[in-house]
Amino acid sequence: MTKTDKSSARQSGKPRADTTRSTDVGDPAGAAGAMAAEARSAEFESEDDSELPTTLATADAALEAQAAGDAALTPAPPTPLLARALGLGPSGIPSERPPDVLAGSLEGLHSLAGGILESLAPRVIRDLNREIRDRIAEAPLELNSYGYDPWGLNVDVARRTMLVFALFYKYYFRVKAYGLEHLPKGRMLVIANHAGQIAIDACMIGTATVLDANPPRPLRGMGEYWLPTLPFVNVFMARVGGVVGTPKNCIDILEHGEAVIAFPEGVRGMNKPFRERYQLQRFGNGFMRLALQTNTPIVPVAVVGSEEQAPSLGNFAPLARLLSMPAFPIVLNFFPLPTRYHIYFGEPMEFRGNPNDEDEVIVRKVEQVKGRIHDMIQRGLKQRRSIFF
């Protein structure tokens, strides 16, 4: 094919650019258009195919300059709030980063609603909310710019949830905490006796370490495996700092210098009838192996008052199996009684050894922790004046 044929083929595939536009230097858009037209003309008339990419790049740059000039001369209309919330630009076209725009809009609405509710709340609640906010800000948490930690904890959700716990802590259960000065710096395993059909004792222990400890130490709860299967509970558990109680999750949290709370009695402590209150059930060995593997000190905790809040008659095993729950205790009251909590934090216990030792070796170490908690419980029972006062 001759050069003339090539030129004719190019012209038939795309019309020749219009070069009649004004090139007045006072008109930036016109100048840019003229540059684009000249570039396109040079493209079609070129006899050397090797110059085609360079010519196209020049033409594209000129068109971009023309678009920039037009945009500078024509201001963009304001984008409505709803469009911004949906991540749309001025022309209804999705913006480049709609998730960030949407998150910012929702965060603004969320903050506005929260501010209105807090302003309408009684002064005691506003003061308590402010105290919790300050205490969480002092806590050694590893947060990103959005207020989340690596395991999904969100400081706003945790603060509002702890506000509810704090009201129960101060005014319903009237908790008295002892020995918080024993909490070590850095990672630790908080091991406590367990009672009650829901983890109210865990909430009160965690509230004590945030409100009354210095510095504040939020605790990470190790949840049962079935909890994430419940709708809404799985997300809520992560937002308030809880994780599924797998060894890997616990090790990762401890290696980040966090504090973990665990109940070695498990569902055995939750299921025991009222006549067996404050009788420690068999402890699992997993927490001791984790402590040995990560060189983590163990803080023994005794809770007095939790085992009278909801007297249990036993476990309704058939219904528990039907609901895929580890237990379904039969309780006399559906709302916990206002028993007075006494929480005792003991001195840290440190253990050394091989985490893969035989069970007999691990059990001996576990029995030391269990014995310490038992002694603390018995002292607490002797010291309290009444179940409710």
Count up the domains: 2
**Shape verdict:** globular
The averaged pLDDT comes out at: 78
Number of strands: 9
CATH architecture of the largest domain: 3-Layer(aba) Sandwich
CATH topology label of the largest domain: Glycerol-3-phosphate (1)-acyltransferase
Strand and helix order: HHHHHHHEEHEHEHEHHEEHEEH
The first-level CATH class name of the largest domain? Alpha Beta
Radius of gyration: 33 Å
Beta fraction: 5-15%
The helix content is: 40-55%
Instruction: Measure the end-to-end span.
Output: 104 Å
Biggest sheet strand line-up: 1-9-6-2-5-3-4
Helical run tally: 14
Q: How would you sum up the major sheet?
A: 7 strands, mixed
Structural class: alpha/beta
Low-confidence stretches: 1-29, 42-57, 70-79, 81-88, 94-104
Summary, kept brief:
The chain is an alpha/beta fold and 389 residues long. It is 48% helix and 10% strand.
Description:
- The protein has helices at residues 3-13, 28-45, 52-73, 81-85, 98-120, 123-138, 155-172, 200-211, 233-239, 247-255, 267-271, 286-294, 317-322, 359-383, and strands at 176-178, 188-192, 219-223, 243-244, 259-262, 298-304, 312-315, 329-331, 342-345.
- With 389 residues, it is an alpha/beta fold.
- It has two domains: 22-72; 104-383, 3-Layer(aba) Sandwich (Glycerol-3-phosphate (1)-acyltransferase), CATH 3.40.1130.
- A seven-stranded mixed β-sheet has the order 1-9-6-2-5-3-4, sandwiched between helices.
- Strand 3, helix 9 and strand 4 (243-244) form a beta-alpha-beta unit.
- Helix 6 (123-138) crosses helix 7 (155-172).
- It is globular, with a radius of gyration of 33 Å.
- It starts with a helix and ends in a 6-residue tail after the last helix.
